[in-house]
Amino acid sequence: MSHAIVETEEHHDLRAAVAALGGRYGREYFTSVVRDGKHTDELWAEAGKLGYLGVNLPEEFGGGGGGITELAIVLEELGACGCPLLMMVVSPAICGTVIARFGTDAQKRAWLPGLAAGTTKMAFGITEPDAGSNSHRLTTTARRDGDDWILTGRKVFVSGVDIADATLVVGRTEDARTGRLKPCLFIVGRDAPGFSRRRIAMELAAPEKQFELVLDEVRLPADALVGDEDAGLLQLFAGLNPERVMTAAFAIGMGRYAVTRAVDYARTRAVWDRPIGAHQAIAHPLAQAHIELELARLMTQKAASLYDAGDDAGAGEAANMAKYAAGEAAVHAVDQAVHTLGGNGLTSEYGLASLITAARVARVAPVSREMILNYVSHQTLGLPKSY
Ligand SMILES: Cc1cc2nc3c(=O)[nH]c(=O)nc-3n(C[C@H](O)[C@H](O)[C@H](O)COP(=O)(O)OP(=O)(O)OC[C@H]3O[C@@H](n4cnc5c(N)ncnc54)[C@H](O)[C@@H]3O)c2cc1C
């Protein structure tokens, strides 16, 4: 793929360098890690050392001083090598961004150097069993007790809590004047008393596991609150836009990996007198998948550059559209790639079938396809709400 029009020479070099790292690990590494129930520790550590995991974080705290544009490049290229690192979506992108933008100096010093180097990981918990797509129904609640906070609630599907040093939990505090609940972000240490997790069995071949969390009167010090108690929603979206951009990059990388494998196969596999890739019924859907991935990436680049330019509102719409387009493109690309390999598409040797479930994650998380269509219907097109 050519990147010259919308990306700088530096971006191009970053892509090439990350692809070289990813290429040294490759799909076999990733699948063997998953098979053995391990984590991608070696790749994560090396990417951290090379500065790739913190490219978006401030230089002052050990980061690369870039933006979500650069971090998305890293994730996409690793994914295109068969190594999509889901924790990049949460640890440096959401948690790192929120702390860098809204944290106190002490919080920045405590967390950012580790997040940038990859030696510290942070999970992110917003989804609740009874709220799901409707974040207005979040009930995890924080109340003050002297200087401390007491946090109580439940979360579900939170990724990587077992390997994260802490989880950034979205709770709500009661507005003293109106009694209404306002969203707030709290850093909860992995071993905080009252904080427990239960692994959810998933049909997903990924090193990162998902957890249900119970917060039972978890006592947190005053400085567990990130940012301003009264600016909750704004701060939350400052973290959620990078999450959408990064999920798009995650999906595009995976889709590229699948198309590349399918194209390699279709070039040489011949069951009649020519390679199957010469049949347009095989070639055209792969060409279409490639086009859809390119288009999704263009939108992702737009969203990332709006975000990096400080346009949170503009980035919101673009990031939703990018996540939608990338999720759909990845699902189509993987489906066609698996089909291209015939029976081999379902073998462990070729390792493509496991991407069928993995690609669908990008369609439902962090916000589902339907909720983005709702958003565009209401916010962009001005249509009335059905709910
Ligand atoms: C692998 C994986 C990792 C995840 N990691 C995290 C994480 O790290 N942290 C975290 O907080 N969460 C995480 N999630 C949760 C994810 O963000 C949620 O699954 C997602 O937001 C959807 O919520 P839900 O599952 O409750 O679905 P629901 O909200 O119950 O929705 C079910 C279906 O109904 C549709 N629907 C709902 N409301 C409407 C409507 N008004 N109009 C039309 N359709 C509607 C949805 O689109 C969806 O198809 C993860 C999920 C997965 C699968």
UniProtKB/TrEMBL annotation:
A GO term for molecular function: acyl-CoA dehydrogenase activity
Annotated CDD domains: ACAD
UniProt keyword Flavoprotein present: yes
Residues in Acyl-CoA dehydrogenase/oxidase N-terminal domain copies: 8-118
Cofactor(s) essential for the protein: FAD
Pfam family, one: Acyl-CoA_dh_1
This protein's record includes keyword Flavoprotein: yes
InterPro entries: Acyl-CoA_dehydrogenase, Acyl-CoA_Oxase/DH_mid-dom, Acyl-CoA_Oxase/DH_mid-dom_sf, AcylCo_DH-like_C, AcylCo_DH/oxidase_C, AcylCoA_DH/ox_N, AcylCoA_DH/ox_N_sf, AcylCoA_DH/oxidase_NM_dom_sf
GO CC annotations on file: cytoplasm
Residue ranges annotated for the Acyl-CoA dehydrogenase/oxidase C-terminal domain, each copy included: 232-366
Domain of life from the UniProt record: Bacteria
Biological process terms in GO annotation: fatty acid beta-oxidation using acyl-CoA dehydrogenase
Domain Acyl-CoA oxidase/dehydrogenase middle positions: 123-216
Keywords tagged on the record: FAD, Flavoprotein, Oxidoreductase
Family to which this protein belongs: Belongs to the acyl-CoA dehydrogenase family.
Protein name: Acyl-CoA dehydrogenase fadE12
Organism: Streptomyces netropsis
